[in-house]
Design brief:
The chain is of the alpha+beta class. The protein folds into two domains: 3-201 and 382-395, 2-Layer Sandwich (Ribosomal Protein S5, domain 2); 207-379, GHMP kinase, C-terminal domain (Alpha-Beta Plaits, 2-Layer Sandwich). The chain is built from eleven helices and 15 strands. The protein starts with a strand and ends with a strand. It binds alpha-D-galactopyranose (GLA). Alpha-D-galactopyranose (GLA) binds next to helix 5.
Length: 396
């Protein structure tokens, strides 16, 4: 293992010193409330200790140069403030580029350009919002470098715009919100319609969150994701034969049961059912957490997974194997897939003294059934994106 000083790398790469502060933006896990954000529902995500670091310095000629220590083979990617268009060959650099573009369009003065170095320790492509993390790391770094007058929620919305308009993924607001607004030892109970939120203390004494990465490549995620979103819109349209709802989550489960006959297609009915029940489950889970009913909380987490498996159909063999195996282990409060699904990660809440055996056993069964290894990470819940003045020492 090599310890690398990002400031040294910066100097070697760009032949000048970075400004003496760095930005950090975490990844996120979602505890419950899946595929509800784009349906005006509740979510309960939290920022995790993994994230993206960014350091930089301003330029004066309008050029932007970016490099990521995670993609050294891509070299230094260069573009200009005058041409901030999406380019497939720019790969990961489209995330910072999109941030430059929409900050610029919102009237923020970034004209001189900048040289930025990124390094992230979020497992890549695992559904832990590494993209939102790069967006927000860029956003908070530029806010400091250029002294921009921006509320944090503005940055969050600009990050979502990069995803939706620059990258063409119709994702909701959850990821950028969690990455931008997270708070240590708390989850964010967010209503994605009004953007009203409260911090829910994660009072899980004696338990830890374990992220279980199926290591399944998330192929076709964006097309399947966009398809689910369209199905929700189609279900809403059918329900609206007799109402005027803006979002599926305006209905309670009881109201849905009375009106579900309006949705003719059984697949669309299943999609709507998941969304509406999941919205209710999320508020319920927050109450159970506040009342210290940990087993009730865990039960709702398990129910969420089953609904994502049977009604929303976004789990797949790998996620189901890892979650169902996790449920059978001693000391497990609950487990479910997290994020968009179709591979990627699941989470489990595990009693501390059982973590070692939990990982050993779950790993073994997963390999036997799926044929390759899963990875496990014990995470702590950290703060949302911030700028810091000390130089980080990164373990690589
Ligand atoms: C992805 C999207 C989020 C959300 C989740 C599913 O992570 O980026 O907006 O829709 O999937 O809950």
């Amino acid at each position: 293992m090599m310890t690398e000083n990002l400031y040294e790398s910066y100097k070697l790469l760009f032949n000048k010193e970075a400004d003496p502060f760095y930005a950090f933006a975490p990844g996120r896990m979602n505890i419950i409330g899946e595929h509800t954000d784009y349906n005006g529902g509740n979510v309960l995500p939290a920022a995790i200790s993994f994230g993206t670091y960014a350091l930089g310095s301003k330029r004066e000629d309008g050029v932007i140069r970016v490099h990521s220590l995670n993609f050294p083979e891509d070299g230094v990617i260069t573009f200009h403030m005058d041409v901030l268009d999406y380019k497939q060959e720019d790969g990961w650099a489209n995330y910072p580029k999109g941030m430059f573009r929409y900050l610029h369009e919102a009237g923020h003065f970034l004209h001189g350009g900048a040289d930025i170095l990124f390094y992230g320790d979020i497992p890549n492509g695992a559904g832990l919002s590494s993209s939102a993390s790069i967006e927000l790391a860029t956003g908070v770094l530029l806010t400091s470098l250029f002294h921009l007058d921006l509320e944090r929620q503005d940055l969050v919305l600009i990050g979502q715009r990069v995803e939706n308009e620059f990258l063409g993924i119709s994702s909701g607001i959850m990821d950028q919100f969690a990455v931008g607004m997270g708070k240590a030892n708390h989850a964010i109970h967010l209503n994605c319609d009004s953007l009203e939120f409260e911090y829910a203390p994660l009072m899980l004494d004696g338990y830890s969150f374990i992220i279980m990465n199926t290591n399944k490549r998330r192929t076709l995620v964006s097309s399947s994701y966009n398809e689910r979103r369209q199905q929700c819109e189609a279900a809403l349209k059918q329900l609206n034969k007799e109402s005027n709802l803006s979002y599926l989550c305006e209905l309670t489960p009881g109201q849905f049961e009375k009106r579900k006959h309006l949705i003719v297609d059984p697949i669309l009915r299943k999609r709507a059912k998941h969304v509406i029940y999941e919205h209710g489950r999320t508020a319920e889970a927050v109450k159970k957490l506040a009342n210290g009913d940990l087993s009730g909380f865990g039960q709702l987490i398990n129910e969420s997974h089953e609904s994502l498996k049977y009604e929303y159909e976004v789990t797949g063999e790998e996620l189901d194997t890892i979650v169902h195996t996790a449920w059978k282990q001693e000391g497990v409060l609950g487990a479910r897939m997290t994020g968009a699904g179709f591979g990627g990660c699941a989470i489990a809440i595990v009693k501390n003294e059982h973590i070692f055996a939990f990982i050993e056993n779950t790993k073994k069964v997963y390999k036997e059934v799926i044929g390759y290894d899963a990875s496990f990470y014990q995470v702590t819940i950290g703060d949302g994106a911030y700028v810091c003045n000390k130089k980080p020492m990164i373990q690589k």
